[in-house]
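ERR on first pass: missing label on line 2. Operator R.T. fixed the label and resubmitted. Corrected input:
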Amino acid sequence: MFKGNFIENLPKIYGTYTGGFVVFIILMAIAEQAGVSAKNIGVMFVAFTVLIYALIGYLSRTIQVDAYYVAGRQVPTVFNGMATAADWMSGASFVALAGGVYFGGYTYMAFLVGWTGGYVLVATLMAPYLRKFGCYTVPDFIGTRYGGNLVRACSVFVLFIASFTYVTAQINATGTIASRALGIPFEAGVWVGLISILICSMLGGMRAVTWTQVAQYIVLIVAYLIPVFWISSKVGGGIFPHLMLGDEVARLGELEQQFGLVKNSAADMKAAGVPGGLKYISGTHSGVPEGGMAVWKYLSLAICMMVGTASLPHILMRYFTTPTVRAARKSVAWSLFFIFLLYSSAPMLATLSKLALMDPNLPTGIIGKSIAEVQQIEWYQRWSEVKQVFIADFNGDGILQLNEWFMRGDVVVLATPEVAGLPFVISGLVFAGGMAAAMSTADGLVLAISNALSHDIYYKIIDPKADTAKRLLVARVLLVIIGAAGAYIASFRLTSILGSVAWAFDFAMSGLFFPLVLGVWWKRATRAGAIAGIMSGILSGLFYLLWVYPKFSVPIFGGVNTPFLGIDHLRFGLIGAPVCLVVMVVVSLMTKEPDAATQKMVDDTRIPTGKAILGKQH
Amino acid sequence: MSNKDAYWNKTKNHMIVTLVLWAFFSLVIFMFGSELNTMSFLGYPLAYYMTAQGSLLAFVIMLFWTANKQEKIDEEHGYSEREED
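pass 2 clean. output:
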């Protein structure tokens, strides 16, 4: 069908794919007009896209180590950017981010700055040097730079903790979306999600994950942007919401004044039977909270997310797949560009969604209307049935007040198209996008964990003489085991989506940030320093989390502890990372400086040209 | 000073410049959130705009700029990969 090799044809292949996807959306829109039920459209959207990913996964199967671990190091800059963006934007980014902005306002948007600003650290401190090094995994760099199995094993330990907390949340998200779109129980949805994830990654490792992630990025960005632009023109926000919502933001300020921002007491909410996890608006949309503590809360969260970003192995390993060091640098820039397209749209979606619900001049507005009237609305009935929205008439006046309207954060993304009166085909598209976002991140994470275990623990430590076939078999078996373990834990619903996502960043920054940075930027860093730094960082961070998070501290320490300097469970990396830095520097200076060979290795890492430190097959 | 050391010094300085810009857009401006919010840009309150879009855009531009600049440094010192790819 195409002349020339696969890589040269990528723009054509993905162009055709995007065109095909658009045709599919149009066909679904026609089907909706022809009377196909909303539920069936949702099923078709999810099933069709997942089948495509599975097909790509199958076509990318490989029996080569180089292709399995680093996609043969031939992924072009822009495509690697798209794959990284899909790898990065999780189910939480897609489904929960706009909801977070909706309820949390300015303070919550520290996540937006944190999850983008971290890429500056990736590009300047890490990615080009790790690419030059030629490693297969992040622990591969640490193990070779510092030398020895112990330091390698320590970094695998941190990678495991950070990525595994993250992956359960992702499998949880795939399960939630699969169960809603396909109309099956959550527990079954989790296993459906897992099987889809494994089909994409098992046969082709990094190569298959790369090409499915590019496909998933295209689906998720189309699914996020179309509703934002459409809703914007529908509620009078203008055709280009990112530049034109100034008046709407000001209007929300007026509406907040008019309806009043009231805080409900916990007792009232309990008496009214508000389901768990549902929230109401009690803060301003664009206002900045006053006071030094509020500023510190914002900055500390942004710092944790930024430094965490630069330490997450499933992101760093994406830059091992580019052809050159130069391409790795540019690829970070493209990644952030593709991420920016979605992240800058989330606050716009939150603004539009809030306006659609709050503005009495719009036909979609519900605040200030009579409750009996709101209860007749179709979308209200559908979402209240599954306990995603709730009304509690606290003052008994029969009118819906701002503080009497409760909803789950996810609803902002999943239900706003319905609220604004868009056809159901858009909701189906949004389901497919959420599924793509959660699957692509889960794929990257499961692969990061199983690659570290198969390459660093099995091949480098346990059986260095294993042949290619055996190494790849072990890698695939571990992939299935890790995925199944994640799904098993997710099926118990132990984690809410966002709490644990932030934890992954804090774990990674506690144990990996300084060992990676100093490995390149400080020749004097020694093996003993790295081991002591990694272990003290991760353990102090973990201990602080147990101490500060009430669900852990009550059974362990017998009470609730006040966070030290406002460092709560979302920010515990601020304890772990400094401990890691200090211990690593002190121990390094106390031990003998690294030998000449190691110093030469660091010198070579710093220069883009010349041979990679680790050979093509290692 | 050898070519290698000169190259690394320039790279280091470039890294520091990039990180100063990064700290400005990610941390410094948000220390003055409530003051900035009295000003407006495109009709948005400024601090709101920066956290919702402005800083994010600054990071994207910064990354393309920093990659290009580093490529120039590579070329100057003969460490460019241009011939290789």
